[in-house]
Structure prediction request, 741 residues.
Amino acid sequence: MELTIQQQLEKLEHKPTTSRSKTETFQLAQELLKKMTLAEKIGQMFQLAPPEANVEGLKWEHREENSSAKLICEGKVGSILSVTDSETIFKLQKLAVEQSRLGIPLFFAADMIHGCRTGFPINLAMACSFDPDLIERSCRQIAYEVAHTGLNLTFSPMVDLVRDPRWGRVMESNGEDPYLNSQLAAAYVRGYQQGDYSSAYSVAACCKHFVAYGAAEGGREYNTVDMSERELRQHYLSGYKACADAGVASFMTSFNIYDGVPATANKFILRDILRNEWQYDGFVISDYTSSYEMIDHRTARDAREVALQSIVAGLDHEMVSMTYLEHLEELVISGEVEESLIDEAVIHMLQFKYQIGLFDDPYKHLYADREQYMRLPETLNLAKEAALKSVVMLKNDNQTLPLAKQKQKIALIGPLADSNQVVGAWGSLARNEECVSLLSGMKSLIGGENILHTAGCDILGNNRDGFAQAIAVAKSADIIILAVGEDQSMSGEAKSRAYLNIPGVQNELAQALKALNKPLIVIVFSGRPLELGWYAENSDAILQAWFLGNESGSALASILFGDSNPSGKLAMSFPYTVGQIPVYYNQYNTGRPSPNGEYSEYRSCYIDVPNYPLYPFGYGLSYSKFEYMDLVIDKKVLAAAQQLTVSVKICNTSEISGEEVVQLYIKCKNFSVARPNRELKRFKRVMIPTNCSKIIEFTIDKSDLAYYNAEMKSTPENRDYIIYVGSDSNADLSAEFSYLS
Ligand code: BGC
Prediction:
């Protein structure tokens, strides 16, 4: 009798996988390539979407039922997208290995972006930890879960630099700063791949979306990107370069055009920068149907021209689109495409498969009972640590927080007060029903007797029926905690917003509660920076809670009642109003800077709002009080071969121990091209016990001073510089030095 799939999974014995050098995988790939027909080679360049993929409207052949199986058996599929159940993975792999002529295994890829079965905070929230070590440790745990689902590659990290919170995908990013982005990007790759993705516990990573997708005009999804090459190189490339340097297994192209050419067929981006300048030797995959979309960009007449442009530009693997599958063979036969271009791409794909160990064990990462590897206590602990470090305290007048655990009656109000919809977009296999809501987190910490809860209203819509109840509840309490924000489905892919307000009638509810004149603590859930001006003026304390994943409520309760001290710092500025966008800290001075960013006639400013944001990059409060002093640099003139040592003393003058993120910015006084007013160059997260001080040291050298000059060369020039050190991007402790090569 034939065994069921489950029984076959149970009988699987995993074979050891060998870690191989690039030279070895290259030789193995070349040997295999010799045995392949042209059609089989092209098959390795295609990533098949799962049957339920939304491909309606795109008229391709091969979409009929069971065609997936047919294509796999014919050796026309290289990998599978977003199939995450072990049984299907096993079935498809068995077809490839046993039915296709050469038995080349498939690899399986999906978006495990901020967690797998365990939901970690959204990436923008984790970036607020300014903690590469935390990100690396988190990604190790995430990789462990991904590696036990049967998947080989995660489409993460997303390292698009972002300056426009209207874009729904800022939630996936590391925020607005090139240096922070690059430090965190590398940490993601180290955590997922652990130096060797052939192991049973690591997975391959994919750096996306190459290139500059975060600069989509107007924050509108899939929109045009247009920027100077200097801006691209100086600010936007750092995250991608950091991934390449960290050995990321693959790169994904973006949907947008860069300088008029879609990234997916952009030779300047894919060959000149990625392959030639960076010497990148992993594989390059397109984004979902981004190849086919070149027809709508109107840069290609038809799918045949798309295939031609993409292979010439250096695209190795097509996600979902079938232009390679349908046209490459004929393009080679007609002599329009050299077969060597195809060989080059197929070698990248086969090298990856050898590297990952799929030829040793095609069923690698498949387990009959995978749930036993998921949501382990250590993973949940780490998700809680990540949540604690992601929360940013934006306001805390008169030490409203932390709250005493007993004394007062608390009215907990708002549509997000008892919501477990806090996994956040790209939640992968994490489940909302397993997330701790704010109310349950508070109840577990202090019991339920002193908490009076009511929602008051919904996130969206204009139903005010719950207002009266909310006001009654608030009247009978000593303090009000109001949990407001966006629904988690309002950020993520294709979730651009033109307004950045807290939606529905939530603001009205807040105003009604404010009129009661009781202490008002606001907790904001969102996937992006929102306009919080009214709250900044009218509340006593604000916690920015993002979407924190499984441990959301327990982490927030721990902070509210002082078991944990908030330490997150904004990775993205919060605007006063959407009209200021883009508003980011590293802006240029202009020829007519406005005094202090305020209105002044014939200066670069607005008549109705300041230039600066409501809350700047790097900003975040603590229950501790940190004082910065004694900034010392060890030389006044820095030479090319030297390092500059910067030290600063930080005193915690409070009765509460806490972690502080110390930030170092430079300003170049003048340069051959305009440079930003401030550039983050170092940061360090340090614990400073109560009533103690610490001396923190940083070293920088000429590479930190370098900037793409008028000749497009990265150089520090012989110039005067100012160092600023402090707790956010407005740091004012400063010291000056000159660079002399
Ligand atoms: C997104 C990518 C994602 C891919 C596969 C696309 O729509 O832009 O970020 O990796 O889908 O799910």
Notes: The pocket of beta-D-glucopyranose is lined by residues 82, 111, 155, 208, 287-288, 493 (CB under 6 Å). Confidence is low (pLDDT under 50) at residues 52-63. The first strand starts at residue 46 and ends at 48. The longest helix spans residues 339-356.
